[in-house]
Specification:
- 2 copies of one chain form a homodimer.
- Chain A has a 3-stranded antiparallel beta sheet with strand order 1-3-2.
- Chain A has a domain of 85 residues: Winged helix-like DNA-binding domain superfamily/Winged helix DNA-binding domain (Arc Repressor Mutant, subunit A), CATH 1.10.10.10.
- The longest helix of chain A is centred in the middle third of the chain and has 13 residues.
- Chain A is mainly α.
- Chains A and B meet through helix 1, helix 2, helix 3, helix 5 and helix 6 of A and helix 1, helix 2, helix 3, helix 5 and helix 6 of B.
- The structure holds a DNA duplex.
Chain lengths: 123, 123
DNA sequence: CGCGCACACTTGCAAAAAGCAAGTGTGCTG
DNA sequence: CAGCACACTTGCTTTTTGCAAGTGTGCGCG
């Protein structure tokens, strides 16, 4: 069941990871979910806190909603908030794992390559 | 855009997650690392197993190498293999967390949104 | 009632990244 | 020396991302 994805073929494998990235692999998706882990937020708040272009934000919110990761909560008059579904909240683990990976841990077995300074947003 | 962080301003936050995505957030990056978790592989193998465009693969391998995630092992004559560094291997946790998230767990409380079938490579 | 304002998005267009196909260089091997 | 496998490059098209400005809607106020 679901196993393989491309059985008995020399073709590319199809992993669960690819399926995950299909949903949250787009440019600002995980950052948006991360913000929402703190609780429901409104469009304007997300935009200001992340610095994400407004059209991208609108697109991502629609996609993530369709994927069942978040949903819109109608607020007063014409305002609304975005909140994670259970499936969206389950992204806390992967997100924290990524955060831990990125966090420079002092006292660990430092190795690999010397850190090179960067200075620009996601990607 | 907001390059160089935005300290002590009302501007966008700069999370560790963003730093992680800066390194492994590009289109095929995590998939490449996932393959490499099984051990060192050669260029052609990666390309065939993932179905990634060859120019993209070359670019990602260079970027991931510069980020200290993997390194090139010279093999016989002009062939080489790519292997994860310790830092790259540490991505196993985030990757497995994402895989678990994507894995349809039978018996769970179905919720969020009805699954919509897809049929195409990442993104 | 009409005006301005905040909020939540669209729209239009330019720049960057991803994708496809074909080509290049290198070192065997026949 | 021709042919072949391997590891990439190069040239061009398509898709995605980003920026800036515009649209619609519902108050709050004079």
């Amino acid at each position: 069941m679901t196993a393989g994805g491309d059985p008995a073929a020399g073709g590319p494998e199809w992993s669960d990871l690819a399926a995950a990235l299909e949903v949250v692999g787009a440019r600002w998706a995980l950052l948006i979910v991360e913000q929402l882990l703190d609780g429901p937020q409104r469009y304007g708040d997300l935009q200001r806190r992340l610095g994400v272009p407004t059209n991208i934000l609108a697109t991502r919110l629609r996609e993530l909603q369709e994927a069942g990761v978040l949903r819109r909560l109608p607020l007063h008059h014409n305002t609304r908030a975005y909140a994670l579904t259970a499936r969206g909240a389950a992204l806390r683990e992967p997100i924290e794992a990524l955060r831990r990976w990125a966090t420079p841990r002092s006292g660990g077995p430092g190795e690999g390559a010397p850190p090179a300074p960067r200075a620009s947003p996601p990607r």
